[in-house]
Amino acid sequence: TTGTLPAGLSTATIYFVIREVQGDSTFKLATNITNAEAGTAINITDTGSGTHTVATINPGTINHIIRDPRL
User: Fold this and answer.
1) What per-residue confidence (pLDDT) applies to 49?
2) Which of 3, 7, 66, 70 is the most exposed place for a label (fewest CB within 10 A)?
3) pLDDT by residue (tens digit) across 27-48?
4) The pTM of the whole model exceeds 0.85
5) Do residues 42 and 9 lie in contact, with contact meaning Cβ atoms separated by under 8 Å?
6) How many other C-beta atoms lie within 10 A of the C-beta of residue 15?
7) Per-residue pLDDT tens for 1-12?
8) Are 20 and 27 a contacting pair, CB within 8 Å?
9) Any bridge partners for residue 30, and if so which?
């Protein structure tokens, strides 16, 4: 981030993405794979400031694939 992170998030932390709508550019974040699979998102209470960047990491061996059955 170039400013402050949204409340509820920390720098240099791995989060797991919860996609709400396929093809949409918005998503929620979970603290671990179990929470992501359950749809339990982090409570982000503000937008912070500046520009925020999300980067993917190479997962190596993929152990879990999460798919929303509604999609």
Assistant:
1) 94
2) 70
3) 899 999 899 989 999 999 999 9
4) no
5) yes
6) 18
7) 889 999 999 988
8) yes
9) 16
